[in-house]
Design a protein that fits this description.
The complex is a heterodimer of chains A (450) and B (330).
Chain A (H helix, E strand, L loop, with lengths): L5 H12 L7 H17 L4 H16 L1 H4 L4 H17 L14 E6 L6 H16 L3 E6 L6 H12 L3 E2 L7 H15 L3 E6 L7 H14 L3 E7 L6 H12 L3 E5 L9 H9 L3 E5 L7 E3 L2 H9 L4 H11 L2 H13 L4 H12 L4 H7 L7 H4 L5 H12 L3 H5 L6 H11 L3 H26 L15
Parallel strand pairs in A: 1-4, 1-5, 2-3, 2-4, 5-6, 6-7
Antiparallel strand pairs in A: 7-8
Helix pairs in contact in A: 1-2, 1-5, 2-3, 3-5, 5-12, 6-7, 8-9, 10-11, 18-20, 20-21
Chain B lengths: L2 H11 L1 H13 L1 H17 L5 H13 L4 H17 L5 H17 L17 E6 L6 H14 L4 E4 L8 H12 L2 E3 L7 H15 L3 E4 L9 H17 L6 E7 L5 H13 L3 E5 L9 H9 L3 E5 L7 E3 L2 H15 L1
Parallel strand pairs in B: 1-4, 1-5, 2-3, 2-4, 5-6, 6-7
Antiparallel strand pairs in B: 7-8
Helix pairs in contact in B: 1-2, 1-13, 2-3, 2-13, 3-4, 3-6, 3-13, 4-5, 5-6, 6-12, 6-13, 7-8, 9-10, 10-11, 11-12
Classes of the chains: A alpha/beta (450), B alpha/beta (330).
Subunit structure (chain A): Part of the signal recognition particle protein translocation system, which is composed of SRP and FtsY.
Keywords (chain A): Cytoplasm, GTP-binding, Hydrolase, Nucleotide-binding, Ribonucleoprotein, RNA-binding, Signal recognition particle
Protein name (chain A): Signal recognition particle protein
Chain lengths: 450, 330
């Protein structure tokens, strides 16, 4: 892959430093260069990077690094702290107007995802805040943009106000607000046409809409994959409209998303939400700290932990741990565990959140196919209860039956049995090590089939 | 004669070429202004060619979204070149800089633009792929217009059965251009729609079939597999098809564009790129990195919202557009 995370980048520099005891200014300079490259590779604007690296240098040359035992880690920590500060606190609140309806205007470049985000936002307001939103189709330029919003509204069961493509967007917005008042809808989300920030006419139209409807929020919708130009876009939209917040879309891709940092730095406006998928409920509060990790390529440890907490039944986890220790782990437990992990989301997504996962050569290009899990499940489910408890019962004819029952080749059955056997051996070793020598303890989450 | 002047000559020779380059100049004026004014700034500010000079040059190139790796190699090359030719004055280096850039842009076939792989007297199938929101449908509309202006019988297939309103969007383009759109309802199997499209194109004796697909992020394995399947269906129905697989890239995209190109190339053997939204302030420097690392040529650039605002990518005109300010100031 084209990108290396900061942690990887710093490895070589750190290696040189270990054993030195203290970090020289030259070391800091070298590390600062790596920080700079990592941020640039993540698409953070070069001006923003410059200021940032300067700040890091100042802090790092000071006491903190010099006296630290692991200087490299300390630098990463400083970088992450500063980055988190720069990204701001979590702010997913949406304004509430004293006199409803509250009006939200969605603006941005073409293809950023305004229409989809409008729908997602409406859904969020209704679901989480118990509001009654109205979607307004003010994109009269792009072919079928009105149809798109109407379809989204239909899917969600949220009313859409549209007047075709012949009318002026300013008038449509005005009438929509009147309509919302009559219908006692308390939020109006106005979807505007995508436009280039340098298109003076169309930017003027936005100013006009704003002056007419006096919105409570103006959200700039930005594609997370945006490069260096994010700064120009955000700056111009903010100067023209004084935006109140940012929504970052397509964050479920594999971009590092440095644009987020650039936008924060030049507008000082909060990033409020993040689009995390194509489904209409995949709009999440934006977490500045996680974004900081992501930009640095450090793995989204926090998200992983949170997901695990949300989805894994604690009691079951305890039981499982007990079983692993006593090595009385059976195929039934295996199935159980698979179900729990599966409920956390697609596996490759989980893997991506593990720090260092992109460092492990073997894992880098592994595409974990959720279908494989289905096959494993099918094989286990084709075993009898006895077989699941005691795999040593397996013989050729049993295997044949299982293969037939699951519709998988015998070789696959064999492989699973072998893997299971090895896993049990590993568990035995681990539980032995945990009782005895401390040094051998395995770190981190440990999913048996990974 | 300096390299840039040579280019200039080339473009002032014939009227037709001038028109092309005018269009580029217009569309790229934002790009050109910021890029070459920065380069001029740089050269004016520094009398001496020193470390600081190269650092600033690095930044200018990075701000154009030319990937970090490409920039580093380029700057190293330039440093070497400056040493070799013993260049001390920054103004002298300007020519070398542009020459190097052109070299990466255009490689060995600097003279050759990359046209579509259209079949003579037979059906040509062109598949459009890319992430969400890059302008696939719009590009299809624009290309359909151009091809039908050239007298070709064009047919469109609405293969984006996922996004709300995508089928209508393509249909509107079909009406505008006056070409038929083959479609099924939203949510139907895209491979099946493609099959329909091919059968229709065959029976109607179409010259070109333009196939729209749903936008997808390149890290979604299932969706990428779906795309490979769509391509396989086309391959199976017409040997040698699709004759072009065009990856549509948004010029505002940063480093991720390179990963996009890699992944889509793996899934569908991309044969060319359409670089859209180049009429903003985005520099489209990604093209450099992609050309260099993956050798995928840019075939078209989107330079505006109008039906006519799709231009065949001409590396020379493109570079000329980028650097013409520098010429006039000389």
């Amino acid at each position: 892959m084209a990108f290396e995370g900061l942690a990887d980048r710093l490895q070589s520099t750190i290696k040189k430093m270990t054993g030195k005891g203290k970090v020289s200014e030259q070391d800091v300079k070298e590390m600062a260069r790596e920080v700079r490259l990592a941020l640039l590779e993540a698409d953070v604007n070069f001006k923003v990077v410059k200021d940032f690296v300067k700040k890091i240098k100042e802090r790092a040359v000071g006491v903190e690094v010099m006296e630290s035992l692991t200087p490299g880690q300390q630098v990463i920590k400083i970088v992450k702290e500063e980055l988190t500060v720069l990204m701001g606190g979590e702010q997913s609140k949406i304004a509430v107007s004293e006199r409803p309806p509250t009006v939200i205007m969605m603006v941005g470049l073409q293809g950023a995802g305004k229409t989809t985000t409008s729908g997602k936002l409406g859904n969020l307001l209704r679901k989480k805040h118990n509001r009654k939103p109205l979607l307004v189709a003010c994109d009269v330029y792009r072919p079928a943009a009105v149809d798109q919003l109407e379809t989204v509204g239909n899917q969600l069961g949220i009313p859409v106000f549209s007047q075709g493509t012949e009318k002026n967007p300013v008038d449509i917005a005005n009438e929509a607000i009147e309509h919302a008042k009559q219908e006692h809808l308390d939020y109006v989300i106005i979807d505007t046409a995508g436009r280039l920030h340098v298109d003076e006419n169309l930017m003027g139209e936005l100013t006009q809409i704003k002056a007419n409807i006096n919105p409570d929020e103006i959200f700039l919708v930005v594609d997370a994959m945006t490069g260096q130009d994010a700064v120009n876009v955000a700056e111009t939209f903010d100067q023209t409209l004084d935006i109140t917040g940012v929504v970052l879309t397509k964050l479920d891709g594999d971009t590092r998303g440095g644009a987020a940092l650039s936008i924060r730095a030049v507008t000082d406006k909060p990033i409020k939400f993040a689009g995390m998928g194509e489904k209409l409920d995949e709009l999440e509060a934006f977490h500045p700290e996680r974004m900081a990790s992501r930009i640095l390529g450090m793995g989204d440890v926090l998200s992983l932990i949170e997901k695990a907490q949300d989805n894994i039944d604690e009691k079951k986890a305890k039981e499982l741990e007990q079983k692993m220790r006593s090595a009385s782990f059976t195929f039934d437990d295996f199935l159980d565990q698979m179900d729990q992990v599966k409920s956390m989301g697609p596996l490759d997504e989980l893997l991506g959140m593990l720090p260092g996962a992109n460092k492990m050569k073997g894992l880098k290009n592994v595409q974990i196919d959720d279908k494989q899990l289905v096959h494993v499940e099918a094989i286990i489910q084709s075993m009898t209860k006895k077989e699941r408890q005691d795999p040593s019962l397996m013989n050729a004819s049993r295997k044949k039956r299982i293969a037939k029952g699951s519709g998988r080749p015998i070789s696959e059955v064999n492989r699973l049995l072998k893997q299971f056997d090895e896993m049990k051996k590993m568990m035995k070793q681990m539980s032995g090590a945990q009782g005895g020598k401390k040094g051998k303890k395995k770190k981190g989450p440990n999913f048996p089939f990974m | 004669m300096s390299f840039l002047n040579k280019l200039k000559d080339k473009f002032t020779q014939t009227k037709e070429k001038e028109e092309v380059s005018d269009k580029y100049k217009e569309g790229l004026s934002k790009t050109r202004q910021s890029f070459s004014s920065k380069l001029n700034d740089l050269v004016a500010r520094y009398r001496k060619v020193d470390e600081e000079f190269f650092e600033d040059l690095e930044e200018i190139l990075i701000s154009a979204d030319v990937g970090v790796n490409t920039v580093m190699t380029l700057v190293e090359d330039l440093e070497m070149e400056a040493k070799r030719q013993n260049i001390k004055d920054a103004r002298e280096l300007k020519d070398v800089i542009s020459e190097k850039l052109v070299e990466i842009y255009a490689g060995d076939d600097f003279e050759v633009a990359s046209p579509l792989n259209l079949q003579e007297d037979d059906l040509s199938v062109i598949l459009f792929v890319g992430v969400n929101g890059v302008g696939k449908t719009t590009s299809i509309g624009k290309l359909a217009y151009q091809l039908s202006q050239e007298g070709k019988k064009v047919l469109l297939v609405a293969g984006d059965t996922f996004r709300a309103g995508a089928i209508q969007q393509l249909s509107v383009w079909g009406e505008r251009v006056g070409v038929e759109v083959i479609k099924q309802s939203e949510g139907s199997d895209p491979a099946a729609v493609m099959y329909d499209g091919i059968q229709a194109a065959k029976s109607r004796g179409a010259d070109v079939l333009l196939c729209d697909t749903a936008g997808r992020l390149q890290n979604k394995v299932n969706l990428m597999n779906e795309l490979s399947k769509v391509k396989r269906v086309i391959e199976r129905e017409i040997p040698g098809a699709p004759h072009d697989v065009l990856l549509v890239l948004d010029a505002t995209t940063g480093q991720n564009a390179l990963i996009q190109a890699k992944q889509f190339q793996q899934a569908t053997d991309v044969t060319g790129i359409i670089l859209t939204k180049l009429d903003g302030t985005a520099k489209g420097g990604i093209v450099l990195a992609i050309r260099k690392e993956l050798n995928i040529p840019v075939k078209y650039v989107g330079l505006g919202e109008k039906m006519t605002d799709l231009e065949p990518f001409d590396p020379q005109a493109f570079v000329y557009g980028l650097f013409s300010d520098m010429l006039t100031e000389e």
